[in-house]
Amino acid sequence: MPMEEHHHDLTDDVGERRGFLGAMATAMMAGGLIGGYGTFATYAGRFLYPSGGDKTSWQFLATVDQLKIGSSIPFETPVGSKVVVARQSEGSTAEDFIALSSVCPHLGCAVHWESQNNRFFCPCHNGAFDASGKATEGPPAAANQSLKRFPLMVENGLLFIKVPTESVRGTREA
């Protein structure tokens, strides 16, 4: 009889090991599924709800002394937006300068400064904007569309512009 009891104990041990290994395999499979679906959910969340972090930076433009009253310089942002920066008065603060998009909001044509008329002009449909970028004539005025304005900063005689560094879709604009 002692032999049968011993045989019975071995069968119990094998059954316990099999139960333990089955439980471990189930736990590992569940962990893998949770990890996989968790990763999928994370990427789906990033795609559907992108972070609204600040995608702008201050970029150096010129020294304050490089721009004389009435003069302007072109600038292209890291995402390809075209900007014109002009000096409007003799001071050396950000308020003495203006940075405006050089793209008409009506159809995307290039605007240029007409110093003789003290305005920005869009040749596509005779759109005109005053020195502050507000539409005054043509389709942009009818649609109340002004040129986009960019913030400027002067620090230690250096002129900086705050521009987007990433477009809405996260890719460079053409």
Automatic annotation (TrEMBL):
CDD domains: Rieske (cd03467)
Cited InterPro entries: Rieske_2Fe-2S, Rieske_2Fe-2S_sf, Rieske_Fe-S_prot, Rieske_Fe-S_prot_C
Gene Ontology molecular functions: 2 iron, 2 sulfur cluster binding; metal ion binding
Keywords from the named record: 2Fe-2S, Disulfide bond, Iron, Iron-sulfur, Membrane, Metal-binding, Transmembrane, Transmembrane helix
Claim: Disulfide bond is one of the keywords in the record: yes
UniProt cross-references to Pfam families, sorted A to Z: Rieske (PF00355)
The Rieske domain, residue ranges: 58-161
Name the record gives this protein: Cytochrome b6-f complex iron-sulfur subunit
Organism whose genome encodes this protein: Bythopirellula polymerisocia
Gene label: petC_4
